[in-house]
Amino acid sequence: MDILQKIVNDKRIEVSLRKRLIPVKQLEQSILFERETISLAKKLKESDTGIIAEHKRRSPSKQVINHDLNVFDVARGYENGGVCGISVLTDGKYFGGSLDDLLTARASCNLPLLRKEFIIDDYQIIEAKAYGADVILLIASILTRAEIKQFSELAKQLHLDVLLEIHNEDELHKSIMPSLDMLGVNNRNLKTFEVNLDTSKQLCELIPNDFIKVSESGISSIEAIKTLQPYGYKGFLIGENFMKTDDAGESAAQFIKDLER
Q1: Which of 102, 127, 155, 171 is 20 to 30 A distant from 38 in Cα terms?
Q2: Residue 57's pLDDT band (boundaries 50, 70, 90)?
Q3: What is d(CA 76, CA 247) in angstroms, rounded to the nearest whole number?
Q4: What phi and psi, each to the nearest 5 degrees, are found at residue 234?
């Protein structure tokens, strides 16, 4: 069984436990449920740099990235550094994240927040809204076309942006639908964890221009972004690059300054 399948199996158990503990009605009474969301797609469209910076403590491929930084400082630092949005990992078992991280990030900044999670149930989308997210991530490789449609349409009803992640042409063709805002090409093969920027280059022409194009994984240099911008990419998700330093916000600020030169 590959790591992705393992994560999804564990996620099904976790979500069914959470549903028993906190009913949807209770989530809908959250003070954040009525807040006006901020569109990441709109921010990326208007930006010249398009950096989406991540809060991530660890990952299955890298183990510990950074357990010393706290979410408040990271989110505040990213906002001051000029990023377009923040991706917050909320998976506990494999990435060391939590929904409380999302809550803290929401209280710390006024940027669009992406709930980075393995979404396999409507419940997690309602949860995302209740905990202050503006965007959800859907991963094409773990969902059917019907699920992508169901989840993305629910997100739109809740005024959340939808970033759909693909790895290949088959996933792209299966997924294209009007309820998506952004298409993210993950350069990392989730089965082997190898990274190849050619994935973004090859898939860019197949993505209709109605969607904001985002490149994810393996983007750790200015050169990588400059290489991908002519291919029509407006968003760049940077995960470990900033988090592995002592000051993620400062690293992001410096990176953006260098990118703008």
Answers
A1: 171
A2: confident
A3: 11
A4: -110, -15
Which residue in 43, 59, 108, 116 is the catalytic one? 116
Active site residue 169: no
The SS3 call for residue 204 is: helix
Predicted pLDDT at 69: 75
Per the document, the length of the chain is 261
Nearest 10 degrees: CA dihedral of 224, 204, 176, 99?
0
* 119 vs 28: CA distance, rounded Å: 18
Q: Among residues 11, 43, 54, 241, which one is catalytic?
A: 54
If pLDDT is split at 50, 70 and 90, which confidence band does 59 have? Answer: confident
pTM of the prediction?
0.95
Burial tier of 134 (Cβ tally within 10 Å: 0-12, 13-18, 19+) = buried
Tell me whether residue 246 is exposed, middle or buried, using C-beta atoms within 10 angstroms of its C-beta: 0 to 12, 13 to 18, 19 or more.
Answer: exposed
pLDDT in tens, 125-155: 999 999 999 999 999 999 999 999 999 999 9
Active site residue 98: no
Identify whether 54 is a catalytic site residue. yes
147 is known as an active-site residue: no
The chain-wide mean pLDDT, for the chain, equals: 93
Q: Angle at Cα 180 formed by Cα 20 and Cα 23, nearest 5°?
A: 10
Tokens 């949807």, residue?
Answer: 24
Share of the chain above pLDDT 90, in %: 83
> Which of 59, 66, 186, 251 is flagged as catalytic?
186
